[in-house]
């Protein structure tokens, strides 16, 4: 029997983290011929994830250049993927989320009359400028896609409101939760020595990431000043901030946050480092979309440093709170979780709406169903209970702080 040719296309570290478990699951299937193409829209950070998950691309466009623009990425990705699609002639192209690579991959496939499957489909802020350009990348990809792998029922409902055929939508959960099952380990040893030296029991470690395009300039300056206020007012708090390589981010973060011994500024962490730090920290403050999904699976409250989120399910579930970027809000909302034990516990123990670790399996089953190799439509993912990523969730806290509860 001729196998289904599936080409997975991605280009950034966040995409790679979420697509790697799916690539591994695709390769397990006897009915699928799985190929991988990367644009390397991000180079160094992408390579680390590929190595971590042992994913070897069949095609590497290597398009990254210093200070590249959205125009540069789009044109080079579109042109390069044209050549790859001509060679592979896949039955289905899988793209993920909302990057420029995602949109270019969907558009190139459309031009060549190749079916598109959109992983993590249906997230919306309903504001085309927030996040920019991600919101429109995601919507335009959705308009081109033939199969929509929505992580949640809310995402499915968004797609239906936009006129997408419900039969083409499969609710799978988010593949990033699948990735955590691989990366998070109790006996993990950090490559960054300072992270091994931290006493996660004595101190409350706050993990921070902030780098989104719409936060550059004054919003990021206000965030950093608020973070410094949090540390200065709470002597048991240690702030760990892996700073993005973007010079506009680094100049602001180091300019405001350096010279405080309880603020640790690091280069971007490898994915396994970040996940294991997240598992041991007290809480997360971030403008990242992915961390809003990951941290709740590890029992960590998340304060979102943005005005809006395309992940309202987490807000509704109580695992995430959107606090904006104002200096006074950063301090106020952080201190709620530092001082109000009941509020911390409520957020830490809320049910994560994003997955149970088996999204990749559902996506593969959905592909087989669509192509007539299975007569059973996969059951939709529905969050029902709190999950933990190691078999026995500890009831006591150790110095390493692993799965520390309030």
UniProtKB/TrEMBL annotation:
It comes from the Bacteria. Its EC number is 5.1.3.14. Residues 24-367 form the UDP-N-acetylglucosamine 2-epimerase domain. InterPro entries: UDP_GlcNAc_Epimerase_2_dom, WecB-like. GO terms for molecular function: UDP-N-acetylglucosamine 2-epimerase activity. It holds the Pfam family Epimerase_2. It is an enzyme of class 5 (isomerase). Keywords: Isomerase. Belongs to the UDP-N-acetylglucosamine 2-epimerase family. This is UDP-N-acetylglucosamine 2-epimerase (non-hydrolyzing). It comes from Fervidicola ferrireducens. The lineage of its organism: Bacteria, Bacillati, Bacillota, Clostridia, Thermosediminibacterales. The gene is mnaA.
